[in-house]
Amino acid sequence: MRREIPIAITFIVGTVFIIAYFIPHYPFNQFENWFNDWFAIVAAFAIWLGALNLLKISAIKIFLKKTDQLHAALIIISFLVMIFYGFYNGFSGIMANPPYSYRDPAPGINFSWLYDYVYSSLSATMFALLAFFVASASYRAFRARNFEATLLLVAGFLVMLGRVPVGDLITQWLPRDYQLSQLANWIMNILNTAGQRAIMIGIALGLVSTSLRIILGLERAYLGGD
Amino acid sequence: MSWEQTFGIWLAAAFTLGIVSFLYRDNIFYKVCEAIFVGSSAGYWFVTYFWDNLYRKFYLQAFDPVSPHIAPWVGFILGVLMLTRLFGAKIAWLSRWPLAFIIGATAGVYMMFYFVSNAMLQIGASIKPVFVGSFGDIVSNVLIAAGTFCGLVYFFFSKEHKGVFGGAARVGIWFLMVTFGASFGYTVMSRMSLMLGRLDFLFGDWLRLIS
Amino acid sequence: MRTREIIAFFALIALILLAKYVLPHPMQFSPTLSLIIIILLSLTFIIIGVLTLQGKFVERRIVFIYVGAALTLPFFMQIELEVPISPEVQSAYDQIESLNPGSKILAAFDYDPPSAPELQPMADAFMKYCFHKGIKVIIMGLWPQGPQQAGQSVEAAFEDDPALRDKIRYGVDYVNLGFQSGNEFVILRMGESFKAMFPADIYGTPYDSIPILRNVKNYSNIDYCMNFSAGKPGTQEWVQGAVDRFGLKLSAGNTAVQAPMIYPYLQAGQLDGLMGGMAGAAEFEKLTGYKDKATTFIKSQSFAHIVVIVFIIIGNMAFLRGKTERKVK
């Protein structure tokens, strides 16, 4: 029954959502509403699972004196500080009159402060580093080795120049309809649309068939081994 | 400006410079910032999902003083079963139940969404009357229809790409290469924008060199 | 740490103190100085080109310096660049412009602070335009930080025109319903009832006692929808769940990474307008007349793109030269 019950759950839940698409009335809308809420609750536990797993791995590194102990200690400390303020602000907010959300920026150091000045700044900068690496990687690796690669390169150049004012500055001597911005618009609205649509349809058809296989229990890879 | 705002800006600037120092080489400042990022990120989502999901969707409904609901308890039990993965293979198999629920819900919803919006409506939009409007419109309609069709032909691997079929697949690759080039251009734009945001913070909010 | 790194660390501290306490605030280069800097940097590209053609690829840190300079220096340059308008941004603007005063628009803020450099400028311009035109805004978010970003847009509108603080009333002219978890499930349930998903606003005020929400049951009671999206859940989910299922009219602002993938919806008519990335934000600012950060940042964006293109061209020149030499041999 270790595999049969999950397969039955997948079938029932998937079928209810498909039927609810066509019959959005009682009882299917009621089932849909319940399943929506259960999904949110299970998602919360899934996130908790990931976070607790991270804590477990970090704690093992510290207590078994493995490498990167400082790294692991910092992870645990920053995690605990964040959840302390998150729960402290949240429970204070519930008890207050009028009540306020755990996200409300109350004076002093609190969850909102930690989010704005610690998490946000770190997260934004991590992603922002990619700006440098994309330039460096393009310089070293982006080569027009064949016709297709050249097409990719030229399309990229035209879009990069056409979407910023410099493109029209370079081609201002041409009639308006032939300037770089118009060319970039045409590439995005016609050629890019055609290619993206082909990808979109292909993914959609693949997703539909895979979803059907999962719901019917033909695809069981998500259950893992016995 | 209050002391915590000033302290916060200097701390955020230090974190920003710590992460950016990775461009020079991997160093202790970067490692410290990275560790704090991982920990604070996990903590943030831990708290957010507690208050926004567990508290609002489970506690407020299950323990409502006027009319407590029973249905949220099913979600709660499924969620608790998810945590059995932490405790070894003997009981970890119980986590398959909530996993099956998530997979089933996602498959059911996405199947209809993607079939209607991403397949049927997109196919319908490609098959439009071709010879309407100006010459430019006609060329555009032909290119969209042909590009979509040839792109799909390229992705059909059950037939060998030879002859006319192979020719259509080749044209499909050309359209896809232009698509990827456009995506590359936009990706460069996006990454540069992210860095501009951080530079605006450093030079604007922190050093006040720009208004 | 090595001596070089210790020196670099103290040099950085010195630069920070110099910038904070010595340099003029704000700092601006004259047009002549700006032109000299551009010419000098352009000339250095020739040196890099020659070195690369000789097979000596410059170190990646040199590339980083060029990218950093291209992004930073335009902040201080007095350069005006004319932003061209694309048809999809024009269409998004036209849809909002066609709304009458008193119309209700649902604004879905589905992004977080890391995506704010691209999306916040268009959100700010949108909010300013709506407030000045008398369009009522119902704010919500599928991302936890979305409603907070919306709050920043409202504040930006009030700072831009302080008279709006007295004119625009919370609950009457705009409301912030906050965040609701559930992704596409939220969108589906809102098709039936907004109140089912948002029983109260972000401050806890019950749905029924908010004036702007009177007679607003679901999508059929609002005149338009604007979505600012950085990923999932976002524009794709709104199109799939609200537009195609309930007939909602929608325009969207997306990050540049996501925008190319949304064009098929635009061409199919599922989406009325699309603002992609910083460029889309700058265009929207120009159309609405509220030029702000995006119009300033687009200068840096332009130079950064040129730097990337020049480096790619230099790299390919070396590659083609090597290819020719191999053919000759």
Shape of chain B: extended
How many angstroms separate the termini of chain A? 11 Å
SS strand fraction of chain A:
under 5%
- Secondary structure tally: strands of chain B: 0
Please write the string of helix (H) and strand (E) elements of chain B.
HHHHHHH
Structural class of chain B: mainly alpha
Q: What is the end-to-end distance of chain B? A: 16 Å
Structural class of chain A: mainly alpha
Largest interface: A-B, 127 and 115 residues
What is the count of structural domains of chain A? 2
Largest sheet of chain A: none
Mean pLDDT of chain B: 92
Look at the structure and give the mean pLDDT of chain A.
90
Ranges of chain B where pLDDT stays below 50 over 5 or more residues in a row are none
SS summary, helix count of chain B: 7
The geometry of chain A reads as extended
Give Rg of chain B in angstroms: 27 Å
Describe this entry's structure for a reader.
- The complex is a heterotrimer of chains A (226), B (211) and C (329).
- Chain A is an all-alpha fold and 226 residues long.
- Chain A has helices at 4-22, 28-63, 69-95, 111-128, 130-141, 147-162, 165-170, 180-215.
- The radius of gyration of chain A is 26 Å and the shape is extended.
- Chain A starts with a helix and ends in an 11-residue tail after the last helix.
- Chain B has 211 residues and is an all-alpha fold.
- Helices cover 78% and strands 0% of the residues of chain B.
- Chain B is built from seven helices and no strands.
- In chain B, helix 1 (3-20) crosses helix 2, helix 2 packs antiparallel against helix 3 and helix 6 (135-154) packs across helix 7 (163-206).
- The longest helix of chain B is centred in the last third of the chain and has 44 residues, at 163-206.
- The mean pLDDT of chain B is 92.
- Chain C has two domains: 24-79 and 296-328, no CATH class; 87-290, Rossmann fold, CATH 3.40.50.
- Helix content of chain C is 56%, strand content 10%.
- Chain C has 13 helices and six strands.
- In chain C, strands 3-2-1-4-5-6 form a six-stranded parallel sheet, sandwiched between helices.
- In chain C, strand 5, helix 11 (259-267) and strand 6 (273-276) form a beta-alpha-beta unit.
- The longest helix of chain C has 36 residues, at 293-328.
- The model of chain C has no long low-confidence stretch (mean pLDDT 92).
- Chains in contact: A-B, A-C, B-C.
- At the A-B interface, helix 1, helix 2, helix 3, helix 4 and helix 5 of A face helix 1, helix 2, helix 3, helix 5 and helix 6 of B.
